[in-house]
Each structure stands twice: as structure tokens, then as C-alpha cells.
Amino acid sequence: MRVLSVVGARPQFVKLAPIAAAMRDRAEHIVVHTGQHYDEIMSDVFFRDLGIPAPDVNLAVGSGKHGEQTGAMLAGLEPVFEKYRPDWVLVYGDTNSTLAAAVAAVKLHLPLAHLEAGLRSFNRRMPEEHNRVLTDHAADLLLAPTQVAMDHLATEGLAQRSVLVGDVMTDVLYQVRDQVERSGLRPAGMEPGQYYVATIHRPDNTDDPARLAAIVEALGGLDRPVHLLAHPRLVAAAEAGGVDLQQGSIVLTTPLAYPDLIAAVSSSAGVVTDSGGLQKEAFLLRVPCTTVRPETEWVETVELGWNELVGSDLPRLRAAVQRPRPAATEATPYGDGHAAARVVDVLSERMTRS
Ligand code: UD1
User: Fold this and answer.
1) How far is the CA of 9 from the centre of ligand 1 (A)?
2) In a domain, 173, yes or no
3) Residue minimizing CA distance to atom 19 of ligand 1
4) pTM attached to this predicted model
5) Ligand 1 pocket: which residues have CB below 6 Å?
6) Which residues fall within 8 angstroms of residue 230, CB to CB, at 6 or more apart?
7) Which residues form the UDP-N-acetylglucosamine 2-epimerase domain (predicted)?
8) Residues spanned by the domain of 345
9) CATH number for the domain including 268?
10) 154-203 pLDDT per residue, tens
11) Is 327 domain-assigned?
């Protein structure tokens, strides 16, 4: 079986790590990097730290407006798919790289599998929501991380093509958490239990200077140091909108490599974020999370009490972050840490059948 994975942005490298490991000895695995994320700290460190083989192809597409970026990927992927003619094109999550690869694959009649299928925010302002809905409806095989995702797919008439495999981010998180514990990796300059970790990068939060200023002010007003791991989009938007990121409690930092991020979150008093992955990582590490968005795809984290949403009412952020520690839970809505092996099983099973 020949599987061609297309990745391009930071969360996709994290998801690729356990898949690449599970493919070893079981499939010929071609990795194509679109180049959507290209900085050392947004891309290269993930391949290095997570032991992912170097991409076979890098399209080096870089940044751009949605149409420009997605279009460049689509044009770049077509000859690559024609060259390799894989048994499966495997796409991940909800970025512009996901959508471009999905469209390129279906136009060439190549079987398409979508990992992390069925997530919905029901917020059509999010580019990620367009990407996931369009990709799910184009794909031949929908690999869902949770029962909630399976239910969304069934509602949209896609049950026949859907399989619940669990969440591959749980696989990689558990492995790296154990490595971090064994190695005793400690985040530099962070006093255990005495700081928060924050990330903000979604367009709805960064691109309106008034909204961004209100978020930064709320973070700066928290009662402990807030290590703000600044995504390039945040830095660029703050500069363009004249928002000073270095205020009050904020300690401005570059994004962290994955093991450093896990070490930092594990020892923190809480996480404040608009990232999808980090909400779940906080839950799996049993660190309280506050999400700066009106809704979340990872509803289980909220239902279990480990995540609280703060949308427009930013003055409420302080109370949300300082809320009492949630009740302990043994729930495992994101699987058992063996999702990647199940993905390879399903791909080979469905290939034989077709
Ligand atoms: C993308 C994904 C989002 C994912 C996020 C994780 C889309 C539509 N969005 O958002 O789903 O949660 O990645 O990080 O695909 N930049 C750099 N260096 C880089 C990458 C980006 O400087 O390595 C800057 C560019 O100036 C760019 C901006 O960051 O304009 C945003 O990058 P972009 O690729 O548009 O999307 P993200 O916001 O990173």
C-alpha cells in the first residue's frame, strides 16, 4: 500500500508523527509538505523532535491570502500526485493545505482519506470550518477522532464513509509526556504551578485591533506571569494594529518546540488559548483551560469541566482562569493513545476491499 500524506501547518506535523511511525514496515509512506508554515520554530523543529522522516517533497508555497495560498498548493500538488499515484491521499485537520490536497486528489480520482474528520464549530467565519466541511464531503474515508465527530458526520449523511479511530494527538501527547517525565525536562524561567501558558492566533482574535487589544489587556491583568507563546500571525497583527503585547503579567515568548510546550503546560496553573490542539492537550494533562472563543469543536473538554469558553465578555477572563480546579475525571473521549495504528489498519482494509 502506498499512502501519500500532505501536511503544511504546525498542528499537522504533530498529527503526522504517530502516523509516520505506524506506517513504518506496513506501507510505503510519501510525505509532502506544502510549505504553508516554513519557519524553523513553526516547522523544522517538529520533524526533528518528533522523529518524522524529512518530507519527500516540499512545495515551499509560503504565506498569502486564502485563494492565493490554496491555489498555489493545488497547482503544486497535482504533478506530485500524478507522479506517485498513491493508493490513498491522506489529509489532516482543517488548514488550507488540507483543502488544497483534498481538491487535487478528487480531481485526479485518487482515493482520499481525511484524518480528524467530523469536527464542527458551526462558525462559518472560521477558515478552518470551511476547510473541514468541504474536505469531509470530498473524501472517500472519514477517520473521526470522537463519537461527537461521528454524530456530526452522520447528520450530514456521511455515516457510510466514517470510522471512529480515536485521536492521534493523544498518541503523540502520551509518548512525549512520558519522555518529558523521564528526561526531567523543565521549562526555563517558569516556576512550577505559578504561571499560565497562553496562545492566541485565530484571525477572529488577531485581525481586529480593538478585539486584540482587549484580549491582551485581559491577559496582562491575570494574577500570575502569563507566558504568551506568540504565533507569527499574532506578532504581525499586533504590530499592524499598534497593540503592545508586552503588558502587565505577560511574558512574551517565541512558540515552543513540542516537548518544551508539553513540559510548560504540564507544570502550569492553567492554559489560555484559541488553539484547538492546546485545549485538548491541557485536558489530557489535566490542566484547566480557558478558551478565548465563543465555541469549541472539542465540546467534551467543556462538558467535563476542564475547559471554559470566554467569547466576547473578556472582563470575565480573570474569573474564568482563576476558577476552582475542576473535578477529577477518568473519561477518555480522545481515545487510548493507539489511534495511528488503527488508521493504518483501516486504510489497508478499505484498500483491499475497493
Ligand atoms: C494555520 C491554519 C490553522 C491552524 C494554524 C496553526 C489555515 C487557514 N489556518 O493558521 O487552521 O490552526 O495554522 O498554526 O490554514 N507565518 C510565518 N511563518 C510561518 C507561518 C506563518 O511568519 O512559518 C505568518 C505569515 O505571515 C502568515 C501568518 O503567519 O500571514 C499566518 O499564517 P497562515 O499560513 O495564513 O495561517 P495560520 O494563521 O498559521
Assistant:
1) 7
2) no
3) 37
4) 0.96
5) 9-11, 36-39, 42-43, 63, 94-96, 127-128, 201, 231-233, 236
6) 245, 252, 253, 254, 255
7) 25-347
8) 2-167+335-353
9) 3.40.50.2000
10) 999 999 999 999 999 999 999 999 999 999 888 888 999 999 999 999 99
11) no
